[in-house]
Amino acid sequence: MPDVLKAPLVVEFPFTRSLGPVQSAFLTGLRERVVLGVRTGGDDGRVLVPPVEYDPVTAEELHDLVEVAPTGTVTTWAWNPAPRRGQPLSTPFAWVLVRLDGADTALLHALDAPGPDAVHTGLRVRVRWAAERVGAITDIACFEPYDGEAVQLKGNTGQFENPVTGIVAPARLDYTYSPGRAQSAYIHALGDRRMVAERCPSCRKVYVPPRGACPTCGVATAEQVEVGPRGTVTTFCIVNIKAKNLDIEVPYVYGHIALDGADLALHGRIAGIPYDQVRMGLRVEAVWTEGSRYPDHYRPTGEPDAEYDTYKELL
Ligand SMILES: [Zn+2]
């Protein structure tokens, strides 16, 4: 049995979101070194920090913004001994929930402290502002221990020049992926320019890429079957949006390809033909570029198109 593979995998993209009036005021306030909360309705109105747009109890819309102090009290915490990329501090720090003076709820942020012995529930802290502020939660660089006087507030109600109306939040998943036994065998075989599927012992379907089990019958697959490298385009789409970090000119075609001998279509890029001439039933073959461990794309073989009836179950 070949080695089960594993490799680092990073999925990342910038996530752009617009801010409603409450989040806009909150983040613009941070830029101006003002922390805002929102007051809930009724006689027992509470001040929520960070502010939300709707009352979490009554679902009523909220807009009564109130300034709270940049000082507060730690309500709970956890020590982070090994900060990761993108976290607020690069040295070990505490994650803390801080109830700012004037607020009824706590805000999650980082506390700069020399070690876990220096942190406790009830610790008094204050905001350490970032030197450059843009209207983001990172405008609070972190919290730091503070035993000084209460801070005088100016009663800001969220009116600012040039409010921030949107943010770009980078999303990133950084993990180790292991494809398991069946896909590892498939990937090893691709390196030798062979496509190895697995057949279900119950329904006899041939799966490629194999996942190690038949999703219909719920039984393990083990019998290996070589399929392809030729196949039929069963359906496709034309991609017109250029992906960041992807060196392929648009438009290009991405399709479902039923490899000869397989009972499931896989996907791949179709090239070697103008994008507007790709069609269902087109016969294609895998193309490996020099030194590549997997097919770069599929290109037409020149055979006559496949009859629809031969692939209609593989769309
Ligand atoms: Zn099956």
Structural account:
This protein has helices at residues 21-31, 180-191, 308-311; strands at residues 7-18, 35-39, 47-48, 64-68, 71-80, 93-100, 107-111, 124-129, 140-145, 166-177, 195-199, 206-207, 223-227, 230-239, 252-259, 266-270, 283-287, 297-300. By secondary structure, it is mainly beta. The protein has a five-stranded antiparallel β-sheet, with no helix packed on it. It has a five-stranded antiparallel β-sheet with strand order 16-15-14-17-18, with no helix packed on it. A three-stranded antiparallel β-sheet has the order 3-2-4, with helices on one face. A hairpin with a 6-residue loop joins β11 and β12 (206-207). The radius of gyration is 29 Å and the shape is elongated. Zinc ion binds at residues 200, 202-203, 205, 214, 216-217.
Q: TL;DR?
A:
The protein is mainly beta and 315 residues long.
Number of helices: 3
- Bound small molecules, deduplicated: zinc ion
Q: Work out the number of β strands.
A: 18
**Class of secondary structure makeup:** mainly beta
String of helices and strands: EHEEEEEEEEEHEEEEEEEEH
The percent range for strand residues is 35-45%
Q: Could you report the average pLDDT, rounded to the nearest whole number?
A: 94
Could you describe the largest sheet, including whether it forms a barrel? 5 strands, antiparallel
Poorly predicted runs are: none
- Tell me the Rg in angstroms: 29 Å
Q: Which strand order spans the largest sheet, edge to edge or round the barrel?
A: 7-6-5-8-9
Cα distance spanning the termini: 32 Å
| Overall 3D form | elongated
Report helical residue fraction: under 10%
Task: Return the domain count.
Answer: 3
